[in-house]
Amino acid sequence: MPSSSPIPASPLTTPAALPGHPFVAYREAALYVEDVALSDLASTYGTPLFVYSKAAMLHAVAAYQRGFAGRDSQICYGMKANPSLGVLQVFANAGCGFDIVSSGELERVLAVGGDAKKVVFSGVGKTPAEMRHALRAGIGCFNVESEAELDVLSRVASELGVTAPVSIRVNPNVDAKTHPYISTGLTANKFGIAHKDVLRIYQHAASLKSLQVIGIDCHIGSQITDCTPYLDAMDRVLDLVDAVEAAGIALQHIDFGGGLGISYQGDTPPQADDLWQQLLAKIDARGHGRKKIMVEPGRSLVGNAGVCVAEVLYTKPGEEKNFCIIDAAMNDLPRPSLYQAFHAIVPVVTHDRTTVVYDVVGPVCESGDWIGRDRALGVAAGDFVAVLSAGAYCMSMSSNYNTRGRAAEVLIDGSTVHLIRSRETVQDQLRLDRLVPAQVSQGNAMN
Ligand SMILES: *Cc1c(COP(=O)(O)O)cnc(C)c1O
């Protein structure tokens, strides 16, 4: 049953766009996202400020849609990359479903009117309460990660008098050649079910009355910039599909997870449509071309649709290092301190200033609070800079460390600006704290 929805044309990219950022470009000296100058946004909304391009998100989805043209397929946005409601609306309206990893994420999908049937639920630690929530909402599939989880899900579904649709997440044991913290497809990782146990666990699942086995899934890691691990993983998944079906358990779909990388620093990941042309050729050659194909891309749909605008607070020359201190920090942009990740940093308005090599750091009281090392920048206090590739795993991993409020977020659509999240105030942060009652006098504290 090939999908008949028309493939929307990819939005035209901005001429002279920054590498990897199809809708971020300088016009003369000023940096724009779509048709809006970042300096205007910084003045209106303050900094740090996350700015997302709707056209860039649609452009990224369109590559997957082209890849799956004429197929029964479902793109489930891996929403932990960026779960802001305004971002989810863009993907829901583009026909996407969602890959969720918590009950809270399901609430977000429902809050934007997303279709629960297009939701898949991943994660190694689903609680019975989360399972009940998802079963009541009628989600499309539970991506089960252990045998123990199967038993709990079966019990919860039977208590509710419903049948849970399940897929087993298999661990293909391939090296995604990415950072160890974001590699998930090796036997040493906590994710998925080991190759040798897969058939037995499928048979167990098929024997449970309250479960309906519908698919198989895998997700081998994140920021993958090479086709090889994907092609190897697909071979191993297809071996398992054959083995499971030979045992009389029919599978309706293959969910191949997310993980496709983006360009942070001259990386050249495959385009989604090119990658899928190769993967679909493999699927067809092995006789599974009529199965529904599902994917769960996160980073590759939003990462390069976003930038974070920050103000230069101080420049601080030093004997060994010069520091450029900006008002965004590791609580806003945790990837450098967490994975030594690289984000390009560029001026929001190019000035004729002396270029100095800086370590770009935030105000947080940690030496690990750096955003970029050894960056040549011509900036002075009061200037704005843009931290690029900030659409994925930045705001979603942000924290209140140092009692810093989370940044505001805006979504750009052509020349229209939508504020999609207000800047968090200190009142927002104090709301859940409770003072210990004042002690009346010493001696009667126990009464
Ligand atoms: C995080 C995650 C994704 C999305 O990964 P990206 O690298 O952002 O594409 C998809 N599926 C699962 C199960 C995940 O944990």
How many separate domains? 2
How many strand segments?
22
**Which overall shape is indicated by the principal axes computed on the Cα atoms?**
globular
Mean pLDDT: 94
In CATH, the homologous superfamily of the largest domain goes by the name: Lyase, Ornithine Decarboxylase, Chain A, domain 1
Summing up helix and strand content along with how strands pair, one would put the structural category as alpha/beta
- In the CATH hierarchy, the architecture of the largest domain is Beta Barrel
Percent strand equals 15-25%
Enumerate the distinct ligands. Answer: pyridoxal-5'-phosphate
Multimeric state: single chain
CATH top level assignment of the largest domain: Mainly Beta
Over all CA atoms, what is the radius of gyration? 24 Å
Helix content: 25-40%
The CATH topology label of the largest domain is Lyase, Ornithine Decarboxylase, Chain A, domain 1
The residue ranges in which pLDDT falls below 50 over 5 or more consecutive positions are none
Q: Main sheet?
A: 9 strands, mixed
State the distance separating the first and last CA atoms.
72 Å
Tell me the number of helical segments per DSSP (H or I, 4 or more residues long): 12
3D architecture notes:
The chain has 447 residues and is α/β, with parallel strands linked by helices. It has helices spanning 38-45, 54-67, 85-93, 103-111, 128-137, 147-160, 198-207, 227-246, 272-285, 299-302, 335-339, 426-430; strands at residues 17-18, 21-27, 30-33, 36-37, 49-53, 73-78, 97-100, 119-121, 141-144, 164-171, 193-194, 211-217, 253-255, 292-295, 306-316, 322-326, 345-347, 356-361, 370-377, 384-387, 408-413, 416-421. It has 2 domains: 4-53 and 303-430, Lyase, Ornithine Decarboxylase, Chain A, domain 1; 123-295, Alanine racemase (TIM Barrel, Alpha-Beta Barrel), CATH 3.20.20.10. Helix 5 (128-137) packs across helix 6 (147-160) and helix 8 (227-246) packs parallel to helix 9 (272-285). Pyridoxal-5'-phosphate binds next to helix 10.
